[in-house]
Amino acid sequence: MRILSGILVIYLISIILLSHLTYVAQGRAHYHKRPRRGLSDPPPPSAPVADPPSVPSDPYPTPESNSCVFDVTSFGAVGDGSCDDTAAFRDAWKAACAVESGVVLAPEGGVFKITSTIFSGPCKPGLVFQLDGVLMPPDGPEEWPEKDSKSQWLVFYRLDSITFAGKGTVEGNGQKWWDLPCKPHRGPDGSSSSGPCVSPTMIRFFMSNNIEVKGLRIQNSPQFHMKFDGCQGVLINEIQISSPKLSPNTDGIHLGNTRSVGIYNTVVSNGDDCISIGTGCSDIAIEGVTCGPSHGISIGSLGVHNSQACVSNLTVRNTIIRDSDNGLRIKTWQGGTGSVSNLRFENIQMENVLNCIIVDQYYCLSKDCRNETSAVRVYDVEYRNIKGTYDVRSPPIHFACSDTVACTNITMSEIELLPEEGELLDDPFCWNAYGTQETLIIPPIDCLLDGSPVVEESNDSANYGC
Ligand SMILES: *[C@@H]1O[C@H](CO)[C@@H](O)[C@H](O)[C@H]1NC(C)=O
Ligand SMILES: *[C@@H]1O[C@H](CO)[C@@H](O)[C@H](O)[C@H]1NC(C)=O
Ligand SMILES: *[C@@H]1O[C@H](CO)[C@@H](O)[C@H](O)[C@H]1NC(C)=O
Ligand SMILES: *[C@@H]1O[C@H](CO)[C@@H](O)[C@H](O)[C@H]1NC(C)=O
User: Fold this and answer.
1) What is the DSSP string of 24-40?
2) Domain-embedded: residue 312
3) Phi and psi of 389, rounded to 5°?
4) Per the domain annotation, does 313 fall within a domain?
5) What distance in Å separates the CA atoms of residue 58 and residue 122, rounded to the nearest whole number?
6) Residue 51: is its pLDDT beyond 60?
7) What domain count does the chain have?
8) Can you give the pLDDT at residue 455?
9) Ligand nearest 433 Cα, by number?
10) Contact 314, 344 (CB under 8 A)
11) What is d(CA 36, CA 68) in angstroms, rounded to the nearest whole number?
12) pLDDT tens-digit profile of 317-365?
């Protein structure tokens, strides 16, 4: 690791020197004429290529030739990996925000370090944040300025039609955050110390619409890599997210209260959920994604502290999940209300996955959660053409539905899951789960109940409040 980062530093330094020479030779004006790069560059290698994304529609139909590029180095950014370039980024943002189709450019070769920053709007339409170099935060909690929020780093706020793209890297310098003694198993003797543990989400989009994130490499986040709250119209395409397998809470992409989302042709390896979906999300398409190692694709946890939660209309298709704890998971707490409905999981390849298909309505972080009478209702869920191998430490199919609110209308078709190694486990678990098998399922699943439960079906129209 050390040697590798040593080589990386030397490599970066030589790139910086080289590009500095070119920069001097070509002069400043060069950057102001440069067309938007990255958006048309060939995609990075990634697993099954999905159809051209349709959600949301591309807000930039024609590549404009008169776009205004605001290079952060023209605003004083040094890009040597140690100077604080925050002011330059803020100034370049302000300038680009004020013109139509403005481009904030962090050029190739630069390693820009900035502190926690909120890039806020409203801005003129068509704004692009073009990252071709490396962008990184201060190195760990000790270097983090006292006055800055420790819960977030790059924040995009109140924007409409914004693109964050390029061939560059967002490097999170997460190691020192993962090693905090409060993190799981990082304390004395493998315990977790109590005390403040807040760590920054690397990239957060908040209350923004028509967002496109494309082409970037996003790695080593202190906590979640990317988070969308209260957004509508999100298109993520051809990005690569990576953090070590044992990095705590490093979810790849998290969605909360966000609608109309497409995540395509993206590769995620990390230490927590590959993609996690919280309450208030609907109309989500995930296609051509490769997860692993990771904790899979997860809906939830939902309904904590008796809250209402609603998730609907999600499709996951042509996706690979490998070396993961959990494959496709729905997790809800006891005592919530609301519903999770209209989910479709189709053409999923599993490789050495623990809990390939799991619904857990008894999610609990402590040992003592009581069973309650209400629950987030799970219904209309389809699993089609899901094949591959599971880790035999637990059954590959597990439906633990609420005692009082059954899971209903679960459709299973062409499911074929075999042990990665060891003995076949042919005892899928179901509790209060109703549905149909359209084909023979491997492992055979005898526990799924036919029809629907004969209880207060009359109150269905309320859709459990969603
Ligand atoms: C479901 O979501 C997709 C986007 O993933 C959208 O195209 C479709 O219209 C939605 N369906 C409904 C019934 O809202
Ligand atoms: C809650 O209900 C489930 C299903 O009936 C049961 O297996 C479990 O033991 C119960 N837990 C508690 C804490 O009562
Ligand atoms: C079962 O769910 C599917 C979608 O997964 C839906 O098309 C169908 O109408 C549902 N059936 C019933 C009886 O609600
Ligand atoms: C339906 O459920 C709501 C909320 O739980 C309750 O207030 C209402 O009385 C129920 N209606 C019927 C017809 O059972």
Assistant:
1) HHH-SHHHHHPPPPSSS
2) yes
3) -125, 150
4) yes
5) 19
6) no
7) 1
8) 63
9) 2
10) yes
11) 9
12) 999 999 999 999 999 999 999 999 999 999 999 999 999 999 999 999 8
**Cα–Cα distance list, 238 to 45, 95, 318, 377 (Å):** 8, 28, 15, 34
pLDDT above 80 (res 456) = no
- Whether 253 maps to a domain, the answer reads no
Alpha-carbon distance 401 to 229, whole Å?
28
Q: Is the CB of 238 under 6 A from ligand 3?
A: no
Confidence of residue 397 (pLDDT cuts 50, 70, 90): very high
What spacing in Å lies between the alpha carbon of 344 and ligand 4's midpoint? 29
Domain span including residue 306: 273-466
Question: Which ligand is closest to the CA of 360, given by its number?
Answer: 2
382 within ligand 3 shell (Cβ under 6 A):
yes
Question: Among all chains, which residue has been given the structure tokens 């389809």?
Answer: 382
Which of 330, 344, 409, 437 to probe ligand 3 with, by most ligand atoms within 8 A of CB? 409
Cα 371 to middle of ligand 2, angstroms: 6
User: CA 33, CA 65: separation in Å to the nearest integer?
Assistant: 9
- DSSP letters spanning 177-195: HHTSTTSTT-SGGG----S
The CATH code of the domain that includes 320 is: 2.160.20.10
Integer Cα distance of 300 and 355 in angstroms: 15
Is 180 a domain residue? no
| pLDDT tens string 202-234 | 999 999 999 999 999 999 999 999 999 999 999
